[in-house]
Amino acid sequence: MNVQPIDRLDLSDQRVFIRADFNVPLEDGRVTDDTRIRRTLPTIQHALKEGAHPLILASHLGRPEGSPRPAYALAPVSRRLSELLGQTVVQAEDCAGTTVEKQIAAMGRGEVLLLENLRFHPEEKKNDPDFARALARLADIYINDAFGTAHRAHASTYGMASLVSRRGMGFLMQEEIAQLERLRHDPAAPFLVILGGAKVAGKIGVIQHLLDRADVFLIGGAMAYTFMRARDEKTGRSKIESDEVDLAREIIEASVEKNVLLLLPTDHVVTANDDSQAAGCVVRQIPENMCGVDIGPRTITGYSAEIEKAATIFWNGPMGIFENEAFATGTRSVARAVAEASAFSVIGGGDSVAAVRQFDLSGGIGHISTGGGASLAFLESRTLPGLDALAA
Ligand code: ADP
Ligand code: MG
What we know:
392 residues, Rossmann fold, 2 domains, six-stranded parallel sheet, 17 strands, binds adenosine-5'-diphosphate, binds magnesium ion
């Protein structure tokens, strides 16, 4: 694909529009994890150094459902970004329209404006052509660095791109694609995939795709119970996605056919109530009235041994309800094994990445993706709407 990286474009005295992914967690008007902002800094700093006039930043934040809700305003992001950049980031009151256009026209070289939350307008998610045109009017050069949103064809990630004559990708987008390409193109064997978390439905496509590439699958988290149900194993009151049981069965059958080792937990931490603060107990078989909340010690030992042997690892989704310390051992142990493994490892998925950070194990990971859904979509189809739209 022919997409220009930002450093091949002449930005000097141009209105440079960067679509970033500043969808960060907030608490009491403060950014509690600024990773996504920090990961965009190289692109922002490059644009400033190269004389953007001015630099215009845009992002969505949360799910304001198409109306301007103060709780989703981007002011906490512009404040944090000002601190990180050491220069004032002006917060706009809207993301398009004549007021914003005038504000941009009055700005100088090297100044930075952060547009207000794109999703305050319902047209953003609908990829509305008029809204895309209104955004495109603000820019001479369009840069997409929002990898975490690149699997969505929205006005700011898709529609506006072709309406701006010069366009390209930022350094974060470039880095994400390059690292994920390593998993797609001849990954060193054994290629191990660790899957967990809650949403089997959203991950089926990528599992089917990876069955053709990976050598071993380790399944954990709530996802494991849907697979166990497909194997007619006892799952008690564990969280199951009943609609996905047939697909899980097909995946198990395909794994046998394709000679892929697909492992399910052989013991479990269970509790009578999945949000109870009480410590769980370890069982081989899940009793009728209990639900699984973490993988057990025997599973941890088996999974860790596979992880140690792997040459390439992709991990998405925690092994248990790690938000509760009593049920975090499985996720922590797997995270430690991945961090200590000699394999090239990639982690994608909001919660899995949060877990690895919480355990302070990010240092041992090859690549930590800023996009959960986007990394899965890219692995599955090798392209993303937001990337396609940048093609020259
Ligand atoms: P990611 O964001 O890494 O892609 P998901 O969003 O799919 O992962 O899943 C993360 C969620 O799955 C976490 O909130 C975690 O508590 C939950 N989860 C993991 N294991 C279980 C389980 N056994 N039962 C219920 N929920 C679980
Ligand atoms: Mg998640």
